[in-house]
Design goal:
The chain is α+β, with helices and mostly antiparallel strands. The radius of gyration is 15 Å and the shape is elongated.
Length: 100
C-alpha cells in the first residue's frame, strides 16, 4: 500500500499545523496573537529576546502553514491569527486526541 493511499487530506493539514507548532517560539507567537486582535511584528521583537531575522523565519513558517496572516501597513507587516485555519487546527487536534 502506498503512503498517498492511506494519508488523508485532513491528516496532511494536521501534520502541517503540527510542524508549524513544532517550536516554542512559534507556540508563544500564536499564543500572543490569539490574545489580541492583531499585532505588529515589530512589537514581537520587543518582547522576544531573538533577532528580527529569526522572528521573521518563525513568522514565515506560521504564515506558510496558514495559521497567521499578514498585511503590509507602511513599513511594518501586521500579523493576525487566521481564525478559520486556527479553528480548523484546534478541531483536527481535538478530534485526533479524542479518537486515538
Amino acid at each position: 500500500m502506498k503512503t498517498k493511499e492511506i494519508v488523508t487530506e485532513k491528516q496532511k493539514r494536521m501534520a502541517r499545523y503540527a510542524k508549524a507548532l513544532g517550536h516554542p517560539i512559534r507556540v508563544y507567537v500564536l499564543g500572543t496573537l490569539s490574545k489580541q486582535s492583531c499585532c505588529y511584528s515589530g512589537d514581537l521583537t520587543e518582547i522576544l529576546p531573538i533577532a528580527k531575522s529569526t522572528l521573521s523565519q518563525h513568522l514565515k513558517e506560521l504564515k506558510d502553514a496558514g495559521l497567521i496572516q499578514g498585511e503590509i501597513e507602511g513599513p511594518k507587516i501586521k500579523y493576525c491569527i487566521n481564525k478559520e485555519n486556527w479553528a480548523e487546527a484546534q478541531f483536527l487536534f481535538k478530534e485526533f486526541m479524542n479518537h486515538s
